[in-house]
Specification:
With 514 residues, the chain is an alpha/beta fold. Strands 1-2-3-5-4-6-7-13-14 form a nine-stranded mixed β-sheet, with helices on both faces. Strands 8-9-10 form a three-stranded antiparallel β-sheet. Helix 5 packs across helix 6 and helix 10 runs antiparallel to helix 11.
Length: 514
């Protein structure tokens, strides 16, 4: 009933918010009669604020058209690589006609960013993606609003989330032979489960995992969010926050945790901060500070856009992650796509490097919750583990904004690069055949399987193409054995010099073809 009342209220408010938007423009126009009113600027600001408080916020777009790669603007083509009922795997394909930049792009690591399914859309990580595109091939999980998924597609469970992640990892690995995974907030738990299951089966696991601000062990430094999930019985959530989607949507009748309730909860955590932000926006409009006003709009266009989550997934997450702590207690079992039940064993991960990132002032995932991943991943050598606490950063600061770009990203970039296999490709100088060009761009799945089966995971080398009459280039294509590497923070910059010099040596052997 609450969902229906909410949608009814939205429908009634829609013409009023549209009227407020029109009034704001009329009073802001100095050539109109209303714009000549002595209080026109203040009245316009009031109507504008009323419009933004009452409007319905649709899913934003990523809107990434170009990316800066060492001073060169490269075009970005956003496309869906895999489409599942509850999620799309999006790729941000980069294009350039600059030969030197193109060569550089081909050798960069492939990274799967797993966005949170916790109320907001994946576009909340727009700044994360934009920054990562400078030095990586980027994929991201784009979760679907559950109210748009017909009942015929079935329910969505936490087990399905884990299975989706495994499928996406395999897809990227099949394309490049290997990949890295970054999870932000909520997905740290299902991503760790997915990689653990792959390791237990003996599958090729990601070269590295970057886990940022997630509730691996929610019992450590519990926040308001944790306390609510841990102190209420599961029946309370079933009776108070689960509703059926109204008839006007494709997913009519589906049981969901509505996005507007999640949004209300976020606002209730810091109501004074949001009230001050809206008042500052009102003042900026009066003063004519367009830059500050636009910054406010961009943030709240994203923050106010929310999605519904399938009730089965939501309730299972509450129980598994926050109430029973199944991951850290070693009692989590996941049903695979084949119906088989598998035990989640993080200690089986041995070849995937691990970086955890926490914000000093995080009020959603408390201090130590993400760092706990190092304790349960006992099979990963200590030399391949690193933890980083971002001084002065809140929850959003570790993946968006100045601190992300200036403090966190350099650590993430260096960590991923450290465990990225060196590319040992040599190509005939006069060859311009499409087959040769294809091998330089990406590894076919058959080659990826061969590499995975014959080389250590940290020393997988890309496929090389060499003429039979040139034995020296062929010798360079041998697999390079990886040596234990100390954490990034302890490694002098000089240690990275040999790895950085390889692309320069290969550049001569690559034909100048687009």
């Amino acid at each position: 009933m609450l969902y229906k009342l909410y949608e009814t209220q939205r429908s009634l408010m829609e013409p009023l918010t549209d009227l407020a938007a029109s009034a704001a423009k009329l009073y802001a126009n100095p050539r109109s009669i209303w714009g000549m009113h002595p209080m026109s600027q203040r009245i316009s600001a009031g109507y504008d604020l009323l419009h933004r408080l009452g409007k319905d916020y649709e899913k934003p777009e990523f809107g990434l058209r170009t990316a800066d790669v060492d001073g060169v603007d490269v075009a970005i083509h956003e496309r869906v690589e895999l489409k599942k009922p509850f999620c799309e795997l999006r790729r941000f394909k980069r294009f350039t006609d600059d030969q030197a930049t193109l060569t550089k792009l081909k050798d960069q690591p492939a990274v799967l960013i797993v966005a949170p399914l916790s109320g907001h859309y994946a576009t909340l990580l727009r700044d994360t993606v934009k920054t990562m595109l400078k030095d990586h091939k980027v994929y991201i999980t784009d979760w679907t609003n559950a109210r748009l998924v017909p009942l015929s597609e079935g329910d969505f469970h936490l087990d399905d989330y884990v299975n989706y992640v495994q499928e996406f990892i395999r897809h990227v690995q099949a394309r490049y032979g290997n990949c890295h995974v970054m999870s932000v907030c909520q997905p740290t738990v299902p991503v760790l489960a997915a990689v653990s299951l792959m390791a237990s089966r003996g599958e090729l696991t990601p070269l590295s995992m970057v886990m940022m601000g997630g509730p691996i062990d929610a019992s450590k430094s519990p926040t308001k969010v944790n306390n609510l999930a841990m102190n209420k019985p599961l029946s309370w959530f079933e009776n108070h926050v689960i509703y059926r989607v109204p008839s006007r949507f494709p997913g009519a009748g589906r049981k969901v945790y509505p996005g507007f309730l999640q949004h209300s909860g976020f606002v209730a955590m810091n109501p004074s901060n949001h009230a001050r932000s809206h008042y500052d926006y009102f003042q900026d409009l009066i003063k004519g500070d367009r830059s500050s006003a636009e910054t406010h709009r961009k943030f709240y266009d994203e923050y106010n856009a929310v999605l519904d989550m399938d009730a089965h997934y939501y309730l299972q997450t509450i129980q598994t992650v926050f109430q029973d702590l199944k991951l850290v207690n070693g009692t989590w079992h996941v049903r695979g796509v084949d119906g088989q039940i598998e035990h989640v064993r993080p200690q089986d991960i041995t070849k995937t490097a691990l970086l955890s990132v926490e914000g000093e002032l995080d009020d959603i995932s408390g201090s130590g919750q993400t760092e706990a991943v190092h304790g349960i991943c006992s099979g990963v050598p200590k030399s391949m583990q690193e933890h980083y606490e971002v001084e002065g950063a809140g929850h959003y600061g570790i993946f968006a904004g100045r601190r992300w770009r200036e403090m966190v990203y350099p650590k993430v970039k260096a960590f991923i690069l450290r465990y990225q296999p060196p590319v040992a490709s040599s190509v005939p100088a006069l060859s311009t055949s499409p087959a040769v060009a294809a091998t330089q761009t990406e590894l076919p799945s058959s080659t990826a399987e061969l590499v995975a089966a014959t080389a250590p995971q940290q020393a997988d080398a890309a496929t090389s193409v060499a003429p039979t009459s040139a034995p020296k280039p062929a010798a360079k294509a041998k697999t390079v054995k990886a040596k234990p590497v100390a954490p990034v923070v302890k490694t002098p910059a000089a240690d990275l010099a040999p790895a950085a010099s390889k692309p320069a040596a290969r550049k001569k052997a690559i034909p100048r073809t687009a």
